[in-house]
Write a structure and sequence with these properties.
The protein is of the alpha+beta class. It has helices spanning 7-21, 29-34, 43-51, 55-58, 81-110, 147-163, 186-194, 201-210, 214-217, 236-247, 250-272, 292-306, and strands at 61-65, 71-75, 115-120, 136-142, 168-175, 196-199, 279-280, 284-286.
Length: 327
């Protein structure tokens, strides 16, 4: 069936829901608007398209309401949609319970030596945590030349929190001089636009500016979907951070940084060799050893092909920027 005159927006909505479907994630109109792939649109346009869908769009999506409250949209399924809607509500409740804890520990990470920005990432960043006991994923931006020492400090905190039954995962640590991402694809665009900065708002803005290619893929996601007050260390917290950084500066700090980097890279080597998501060097510690991004995009690509939308998603395997098809 050929799309009608509303096809460009309809296709963008369907494509956005197909990406969310990889994660079994029904979306609200606000979320669809924010993460709409490849096309700027107003919230009113999205709400109208969902409330009165075209015949073309209606054959592929289902819009449902839980407890007469939030309205969610999802790809049609013969038997699983009700369960997926209910799971979304359960995960939203779990995320609400988990959020204060994630914010509290993220703020503590932001007070560690050499840390310049902390952002919540992963499922919790989009309120899709599986349970209130889920791991807390973070991205850390740190001072150049102290990536591995900053990570070591974070690991000390991780081990201390483990005793308390809290699992912290600072699984991406990068230098403030390495904000531009080498991987230019939809998965990375989502990672950039989904993360919720807790500390270092200025650094966050620089990171978004260094990766403005993501604005082409997700043009409505110029700011975080969830906004948190900046908790960058000030006064006593900042002074303590400065004193600790001074103690680890100079030749001694340089030697410790180099020693820790070489030691951990040797340890990680066997794990990391098979993953294109893993980056371990002087400016990055990205420990995604299971290549989750590539698997996500492979599943998304199959869905695009199933719904005859692959032509709207032009992405070179080398990471060239996506550009939507012309109207």
């Amino acid at each position: 069936m050929q799309p009608d005159t509303h096809a460009p927006l309809d296709q963008a909505i369907l494509m956005t829901l197909l990406y969310a479907d990889v994660f079994s994630f029904p979306m609200t109109a606000l979320e669809i608007h924010h993460f709409l792939i490849g096309r700027p649109a107003s919230l009113e346009e999205i709400e109208l398209a969902l409330a009165t869908p075209s015949a073309w769009l209606a054959q592929y999506i289902e819009v449902g309401t839980l407890n007469q409250q939030r309205v969610y949209a999802i790809i049609k399924s013969e038997s699983q949609n009700k369960a997926i809607f209910e799971k979304r509500q359960q995960r939203d409740l779990a995320s609400t319970e988990l959020w204060p804890k994630a914010r509290r520990y993220g703020m503590l990470l932001g007070h560690m030596p050499f840390v310049r920005m902390v952002a919540i990432t992963g499922a919790l960043a989009v309120r899709n945590a599986g349970s209130p006991q889920d791991d807390l994923d973070y991205l850390l931006v740190v001072k150049h030349g102290r990536v591995w020492l900053a990570r070591l400090g974070a690991v000390v905190m991780v081990k201390a929190c483990k005793v308390l039954g809290v699992t912290l995962c600072p699984n991406y640590v990068l230098a403030e001089t390495a904000l531009a991402q080498d991987r230019l694809d939809l998965f990375m665009a989502h990672e950039l636009t989904q993360m919720i900065p807790l500390t270092g708002q200025t650094v966050y803005q620089k990171m978004r500016l260094c990766n403005d290619w993501a604005d082409v893929m997700l043009p409505n996601a110029q700011t975080p979907f969830y906004i948190e007050k900046d908790a960058t260390p000030r006064r006593i917290g900042r002074w303590v951070q400065i004193v600790l950084e001074l103690a680890l500066s100079g030749p001694v700090g340089n030697w410790l940084e180099d020693w820790e980097r070489r030691r951990k890279i040797r340890k990680f080597h066997n794990q990391a060799t098979q993953s294109t998501d893993t980056v371990l060097d002087a400016e990055h510690v990205k420990g995604h050893f299971f290549d989750y991004g590539s698997r996500t995009l492979q599943r998304f690509q199959k869905s695009l092909e199933t719904y005859d939308l692959a032509r709207l998603y032009e992405m070179e395997q080398t990471g060239e920027v996506f550009s939507p098809a012309a109207d």
